[in-house]
Specification:
By secondary structure, the protein is mainly α. The protein has one domain. Helix content is 57%, strand content 6%. Helix 1 runs antiparallel to helix 6. The N terminus is likely disordered.
């Protein structure tokens, strides 16, 4: 048993909020809040690039989120079938927890990109604008696990260890044991990933679509580490939890997709963030991609500048 901690994160004494006759589950509120924040950021990024409106983002987000919730629940049920095979009525009880993010991404991202295409927004543009919004939603939604007192990590006596009440203790641990707050780790990781993607987009302006591949890689790296800390029951293969294998696949798949997209960059004429000005081209790889006509035009412009006494 882990005892004598200097400080710890207390377990919540409630997981719902009562408003008159209504009882709102905080797990659901956390997910909904994350969705609202993500749709807002997605819409803002579409408008910044002149590719769509906030109304487009809302219309896309509604169905993409619905697909994501269904996909994440089906993923959870499939990977934890022992819990449901004798209690099929528990499958739709989302408020009790149990959403597999990998399944949500596999279902929600393609649906969102398809709906964006239906509205005249290219697949690559939709992916770029949505990439940092997805981890923002995850950062907020993960707090639902805190209020459900679920999916925590191994026992620890770190100052930020998480207290869990006896009703939610994993079997085999004594009352008073404290654990790694994996919900907090993943929330902070996702928030940092959102910030890094926004910074990369602003500083380096990668070609359309590449930011989504970076998100998939970043998510996989964080999830692999955090999943290794968790102690809830899960299927294993070759010593790794199933979700760790999925995370590895995300890192490898995202890396391969990014490498391919860097060799075949997508540039749209109306994208204000594209590197249209050849004076901005400083990377040798980008310079090599200039055609003969582009180089000739550049040389002519440089010669004209040299002849201009005011230049």
């Amino acid at each position: 048993m882990i005892v004598g901690v200097v400080a710890s994160i207390p377990s919540p004494s409630f997981n719902s909020i009562d408003i008159g006759p209504l009882s709102l589950n905080i797990y659901g509120l956390a997910i909904a809040s994350g969705v609202v924040a993500a749709v807002w950021m997605f819409g803002r990024r579409l408008e910044e690039r002149g590719a769509g409106t906030s109304d487009d983002a809302s219309a896309i987000g509604i169905w993409a989120v619905l697909a994501g919730v269904i996909g994440s629940r089906l993923y959870h049920v499939a990977t934890d079938w022992d819990r449901f095979e004798n209690d099929l009525a528990a499958i739709p009880k989302l408020w009790e927890g149990g959403l597999g993010i990998p399944g949500g991404l596999l279902a929600g991202i393609p649906v969102g990109m398809y709906l964006g295409r239906r509205k005249g927004i290219s697949l690559a543009m939709t992916a770029t604008c949505a990439a940092p919004a997805i981890p923002l939603a995850q950062a907020i939604g993960r707090w639902g696990n805190y209020f459900n007192q679920e999916l925590y990590g191994r026992a620890t006596d770190l100052p930020w260890a998480l207290e869990i009440d006896d009703a939610h203790l994993v079997e085999g641990y004594a009352s008073g044991t404290t654990f790694h707050p994996t919900f907090l780790y993943e929330s902070l990781w996702s928030l940092a990933l959102c910030g890094v993607l926004l910074w990369i987009d602003k500083r380096f302006r990668p070609a359309l679509g590449q930011l989504m591949a970076m998100f998939v890689m970043g998510y996989g790296i964080g999830r692999f580490w955090i999943e290794g800390l968790r102690i809830d029951r899960a299927d294993e293969l070759a010593g790794l939890r199933w979700n760790q294998w999925v995370a590895l696949a995300a890192v490898i798949g995202g890396g391969a997709a990014l490498a391919w997209m860097r060799r075949h960059p997508v540039v749209e004429e109306h994208d204000p963030f594209a590197l249209d000005d050849r004076d901005d081209v400083t990377d040798l790889d980008e310079f090599d991609e200039l055609g003969d006509d582009d180089l000739a035009a550049t040389d002519e412009r440089v010669a004209a500048d040299d002849l201009d006494p005011e230049s």
